[in-house]
Write a structure and sequence with these properties.
Strand content: 15-25%
Mean pLDDT: 92
Oligomer: single chain
Number of helices: 9
Distance between the termini: 19 Å
Radius of gyration: 20 Å
Bound molecules: zinc ion
Structural class: alpha/beta
CATH topology of the largest domain: Nucleotidyltransferase, domain 5
Order of helices and strands: EEEHEEEHEHEEEHHHHEHEH
């Protein structure tokens, strides 16, 4: 029987699970369909049963659990307040529900904070003390590591980088606000802009996802290049503001949209260079995270930290 830390990354579609041993050796990873429509209690008991069976097969015993959940998490009390990705899940005591399954120490945090912790440990080997993670997926999220720890803010809401207001009366965001970074650099924002620019033009190109937008731009499609340029400039504007306030050493970018690489980063860096007040911007290193999905591993690492 081997002791292992368990990491769980709850997503709207899939839930990813990882088992890890110190000092960060991955023993096993798998994913299951979330089926969150059954409600949180049945979701947790079903997932608990699947994981216990897996532990039996692999000869593992769970020594601590870390969980990343999408949405507003009260991490001190272990409650998921609400989540745009998990309809109907409100004020769910996830920490105590999971405790009943595993009878060990449980840590619950927002999924972007957990991803930031994973990136901090796996990509940066805990060296820099200041790091900002920006997750560029359908939505845009973020996590802040300061002094080698996750910075949560007063109620766990710190790091909502996607909802930084960049444009007065700008594009509509999923949060109900206007002009947020997410409305330009999240995949729905990018695709909306591509449709706007293509409207009325003769084009056989149908852009369905950021990857198609990325490939079309690489093939020289002028409209797609323009869409990435605009998104990169918004990202650059956001990084400038973050850098003036936080002065981080690293800004890591993760998620599907970040895979566009230079298409996004070159315009972002150009915006950064255009600022005369350069002192806080100079030391900032911008990188695309090598591991696009470190959520479950980050959760297992957070459990290890919590032990
Ligand atoms: Zn917003």
């Amino acid at each position: 029987m081997l002791w292992a830390f368990l990491g769980i990354d709850i997503g709207g579609t899939n839930t990813k699970v990882a088992f890890m041993r110190r000092p960060g050796r991955v023993l096993h990873q798998f994913a299951v369909a979330s089926e969150t429509f059954v409600g949180p209690r049945r979701f947790v008991s079903r997932l608990g049963r699947i994981i216990r069976e897996k532990c039996g097969d692999l000869g593992l015993r769970v020594e601590g659990v870390g969980i990343g959940a999408p949405g507003h998490v009260d991490f001190r009390r272990g409650i998921l307040r609400d989540s745009p990705n998990l309809p109907g899940w409100k004020n769910v005591p996830l920490k105590s529900l999971f405790f009943r399954q595993f009878r060990t120490k449980i840590l619950l945090d927002n999924d972007a904070n957990i991803a930031a912790w994973g990136a901090f440990v796996l990509e940066l080997k805990r060296r820099p003390q200041q790091m900002v993670l920006i997750t560029l997926g359908t939505g845009v999220g973020g996590g802040l590591i300061f002094g080698g720890k996750i910075y949560h803010g007063i109620n766990g809401s710190a790091g909502e980088i996607g909802h930084m207001r960049l444009v007065p009366r700008g594009a509509l965001c999923s949060c109900g606000g206007r002009g947020c970074l997410e409305a330009y650099a999240g995949s729905y924002g990018l695709l909306r802009r591509a449709r706007e620019l293509k409207a009325g033009r003769a084009s056989r190109l149908v852009i369905m996802d950021p990857r198609a937008l990325h490939l079309a731009a690489r093939r020289g499609d002028k409209i797609c290049i323009k869409v990435w340029k605009e998104a990169g400039e918004m990202l650059g504007r956001a990084i400038v503001n973050l850098s003036y306030v936080l002065n981080p050493e690293y800004v890591l970018l993760s998620g599907g949209v970040a895979q566009a690489g230079a298409l996004l980063l070159e315009p972002a860096r150009r915006v950064m260079r255009q600022n005369a007040f350069a002192g806080p911007l100079k030391p900032v290193k911008i990188r695309v995270a090598r591991r696009p999905n470190s959520g479950a591993l980050g959760a297992a690492l957070a459990a290890m930290e919590n032990a």
